[in-house]
Design a protein that fits this description.
5 strands
């Protein structure tokens, strides 16, 4: 009878260990989705702060810079041409730039890549003169 009780105690210990292992694995499976969700939130936040936010700031700065484009500003176009703004169209969408003596080109404001130096009349629109088409 002692052997029977000893074997029953061993079976009970094995069953208790298996139950503990099952409970532990259940906790791990519950913790896995929570940790996965946490990691996804961290990755999304990093994506926003490292990529999207600086890109929108840069876009706003470019729009602000193009909106303040004025006569006399020295510019570089997206094609790499260096010139000076001679006129701004009345609609504000076009500008005329001089790239060499008597070489003037009418272009869209969006063709300006950077403003290298502000002219004397920065911030002022041309009042008189021909309208750019």
């Amino acid at each position: 009878m002692g052997d029977f009780l000893a074997s029953m105690a061993a079976v009970a210990q094995q069953a208790g260990g298996a139950a503990q292992q099952a409970a532990g694995s259940e906790q791990q499976t519950q913790a896995f989705p929570q940790s996965m969700m946490f990691m996804l939130i961290i990755i999304a936040a990093a994506f926003y702060f490292l990529i999207l936010r600086p890109q929108t700031k840069e876009k706003k700065e470019r729009e602000r810079q193009l909106s303040t484009l004025a006569k006399g500003d020295k510019i570089v176009t997206i094609g790499g041409l260096h010139g000076k703004i001679t006129r701004i169209g009345k609609g504000g969408q076009q500008a005329e730039a001089e790239f060499a003596k008597n070489v003037r080109i009418i272009m869209n404001r969006s063709a300006v890549s950077t403003i290298t130096k502000r002219g004397k009349g920065a911030g002022e629109e041309e009042e008189a003169g021909e309208e750019l088409e």
